[in-house]
Structure of Glutathione reductase (NADPH):
Amino acid sequence: MTDFDYDVVFIGSGHAAFHGAFKLLKAGKKVALIEESKLGGTCPNYGCDAKLLLDGPFEVIQDSQNYQGFGLDTAPQLNWEDLMAYKHEWIDRLPIMMKELIPKVGIDVYEGHGKLLDAHRIDTGDKKITADNIVLATGAHDSVLPVTGKEYIHDSKDFLSIPHLPESIVFIGAGLISLEFASMVMKTGAKIEVIEFSDRALAQYDQKYVDKVVARLEAEGVNFHFNEAVNGVQKNDNGYVVTTESGLEFATGYVFGATGRQANTQGLGLDEVGIAYTKNGISVDDHLRTSLKNVYVSGDVIDKQIPKLTPTATFESNYIASQILGEDDQPINYPAVPYVAYTLPRIAQIGVTPEQTQAASDKYEVKVLPYGQGFDTRHDTDAEMTVIFEKETQKVAGAVIYGGQAASLINILTFVVDKGLTNDDLEQMIFGFPDVTYSALTMLSPNGFMG
Ligand SMILES: Cc1cc2nc3c(=O)[nH]c(=O)nc-3n(C[C@H](O)[C@H](O)[C@H](O)COP(=O)(O)OP(=O)(O)OC[C@H]3O[C@@H](n4cnc5c(N)ncnc54)[C@H](O)[C@@H]3O)c2cc1C
Ligand SMILES: NC(=O)c1ccc[n+]([C@@H]2O[C@H](COP(=O)([O-])OP(=O)(O)OC[C@H]3O[C@@H](n4cnc5c(N)ncnc54)[C@H](O)[C@@H]3O)[C@@H](O)[C@H]2O)c1
């Protein structure tokens, strides 16, 4: 570095930024982060981590319900206020810790709104700085439904800090955020309506298992309304009334909207410096560069087909750091990406989907494995896997898992799919026993009890 204040400046401080920043720092580069809100971004503060902390006790309730009549007769009682205090105790300290740690290790932090002035100059709010390379890692935000009364619709950030749980909630959208939160709240006996614009929930997931999650939620009392478009929210003395274009009306105590997330492209100076973007995010080439070759894009703000998740943001951040360090000059090559819906029960999938095999039945063999029938699944009797084998090689090409332990199992299946292991390879290994992972892996083997 000669003429610039920094070798690399990241706008944003989420997973799309800090992994790469640490890698660059370790390699001797001078690095800065610009953050206008909480350090660490969405995932720890308002996303995955905060959600999982709140979800834990609900998972325990679900597990205990599975044992009813089989040794556990009383379900645990939830205390939301205590749970929320526990969440705050964990989550609120994370940005504080990062604020102490990051400058201490040698990365400068600018607290302000980052805006590109040209290919090398950035306005941080109160200071202008220069960088040889810039990484745009500004993430995304929950979209706001453009209807009358939109100010009464809460988003995921609000919900993740809600001090008291309402007795009734209308969820607008039946995507990941809504169904994950509805799965939890349902366990408190709240009255829940889910209004979905399209004819299905969780469109990215295998519909066989989505139908099972929807049926389970319906059995617990959630009312789903598909093919309905919300056109307004009115406030009255008792709460709110949500109306749809077809004339349905729902009285409720709380309105929650999760109708997709939008990339944070506004106010970044993109138009001024000539960087192209769409409504899905900033346009990049196969090296995650914009039309300005020293300006990269990482994480949720990219216009991409790959899922917008924490692990994909992390992968991109590390990839960009390798590009800048000259360790790698190849186009980005994503490995198989697992998707996990933290609904109750969970759905997780990796690789080739059952739907994709329909057009290639000569290439793939699909096996449905009811692993929940085993003794080691905490009486989660419905749990099931659909596993896709490549006929010619017998490699495991994909899997969908439905059940309480799907989120852990999918990481093992990710390893199997990504490394191209065959069921014979698995038979050459020894796994810890007894455990649900053992049974699931044994089932993949041709000589296993279900293989
Ligand atoms: C409720 C919820 C649950 C989720 N659950 C999961 C999950 O279970 N698993 C999973 O993998 N993913 C989950 N996600 C998605 C995950 O949080 C994101 O994919 C991930 O945070 C993306 O990281 P990022 O760094 O690209 O963006 P972010 O984490 O959004 O970080 C971007 C940062 O940039 C800052 N910023 C924006 N513009 C500027 C600017 N101009 N100047 C300075 N700073 C700026 C923002 O304040 C923010 O801190 C969830 C998301 C939500 C909302
Ligand atoms: N487990 C995870 O990995 C996880 C969890 C939560 C969030 N996330 C992140 O957040 C994103 C999901 O956010 P989301 O749940 O808001 O989006 P989504 O795209 O999953 O779901 C939005 C839903 O809202 C519906 N919708 C859109 N407009 C509507 C309208 N006017 N009326 C009624 N329904 C309408 C859509 O048809 C869709 O089903 C993910 O793509 C991911 O980036 C990931």
About this structure: The longest strand covers residues 128-136. The pocket of nicotinamide-adenine-dinucleotide (ligand 2) is lined by residues 145, 172-178, 180, 195-198, 203, 229-230, 258-261, 308-309, 340-342 (CB under 6 Å). The chain has a mean pLDDT of 95. The two ends are 58 Å apart (CA to CA).
